[in-house]
Design goal:
The chain is α+β, with helices and mostly antiparallel strands. It is built from 6 helices and 11 strands. It folds into 2 domains: 135 residues, N-terminal domain of MutM-like DNA repair proteins (Alpha-Beta Barrel); 132 residues, Helicase, Ruva Protein, domain 3 (Orthogonal Bundle). 22% of the residues lie in helices and 21% in strands. Strands 1-7-8-5-6 form a 5-stranded antiparallel β-sheet. The longest helix has 20 residues. 39% of the residues are buried.
Length: 293
Amino acid sequence: MPELPEVETVRRGLEPAMAGQMITKVEQRRPDLRFPLPEHFADRLKGRTITGLSRRAKYLLLHLDDGVDLVCHLGMSGSFRVEEGSKSRTPGDFHYERSKAAAHDHIVLHLSSGAHVTYNDPRRFGFMDLIPQAELADHPFFRGLGLEPLGNELDGAHLAALFKGRKAPLKAALLDQRLIAGLGNIYVCESLHMAGLSPKRAAGTLAKKSGAPTAGAERLAADIRLVLEDAVRAGGSSLRDHRQTDGSLGYFQHNFRVYDREGETCPTKDCGGTVRRIVQSGRSTFYCPKCQK
């Protein structure tokens, strides 16, 4: 399942080709993906201009000029391919050939520029929907989603306010989509290691009695943004089938500090500890018990 940086990487890769373009033709090659596509899906998209692209948590949003958003979720294996003539758009540098079998090319959007964007999904765990922009906040996909972790909105004060009084383990609180939207297992492990915070400590310990953020809360907020931005620049972790817009495999996976490095020496300078793996809420947690307190 793609995490937030993968979706943000796809958004940034699609935006130059799609923003400001009219959809002149839609090839809908099946009636459903993970869920049935909306009624009259192709007809509703044809003739619409894409005014911009954004992301909410792990959802990609294409804003249309009629006030409706084309909402896309990539599922396990969904990806977009941008083609202009004989060339494919390549937002990344580390290439990995993906399946181009026509049987897996389910949706093709033809743009007024002459380019076309193909949604390919071998497993069909992804899905698309058309939702009025005014109704997004109350839609089941988005209702109850928490703070976005990219950008300046997430800071130590926000973390302290979210976690004050919470006895749940810090890692579990960070994965709670009602508190922070889009954070996934990999990047939580990486952020906690950078901040020197144990995934097992109570989330409420990031807030002082007054409600003010601790130094740990300030470090963690900064490190979450740093880890996510580094992952976006590198193309995302690209676990399993997920790849960049053009099918390229991201390479942030080669830079993991602790994730999937059980038994290796902690990379923190002068630590000398060993990365351990434990299971929390059914998910693998990788951390260094020596330097993460």
